[in-house]
Design goal:
Length: 142
């Protein structure tokens, strides 16, 4: 199996069987993000323990890329501090734009599957939407 096939498989698996999907009871913060051009719309809900994301869930609808990105994001963000999440967000933005050096992808686990998005510039917003929505949730007062 080629790497591109493996990446495609990872995205399809997360899109059809998303992790951390559903509402989060007693969320500390939440945010709604939408991309009206393609119809993606997600709600991200988090629980914070100090500056650490102790729990996270998402719900909504979107294309395979946005749903897979949200699923993988929740897996990676859970347990991270806000600062660690911001550093990860920076890497993901570079990854989907094709600007992250290949040697830095190994630490991203399944998220490296989003590297293929760089070949489709119109899909970059799909991959980034959940991340920006989580960033908004962290910054919110809800």
């Amino acid at each position: 199996m080629e790497l591109s096939d493996l990446y495609r498989e990872v995205i399809l698996t997360h899109a059809t069987h998303p992790h951390n999907y559903g509402a989060l009871d007693h969320a500390d913060r939440k945010s709604h993000g939408a991309n009206p051009i393609c119809g993606d719309a997600f709600d991200i809900e988090i629980r914070l323990d100090g500056d650490r994301i102790s729990d996270i869930r998402f719900h909504g609808m979107g294309c395979s890329i946005s749903k897979a990105s949200a699923s993988m994001m929740t897996e990676m963000a859970k347990g991270k501090t806000v600062k660690e999440f911001e550093e990860l967000l920076d890497k993901i933005e570079k990854l989907v734009r094709g600007e992250l050096p290949p040697n830095e992808r190994a630490s991203l686990g399944d998220l490296a599957a989003l590297a293929g998005v760089a070949s489709f510039p119109t899909r970059v917003k799909c991959a980034i939407l959940p991340w920006k929505t989580l960033e908004s949730a962290i910054e919110s007062d809800e």
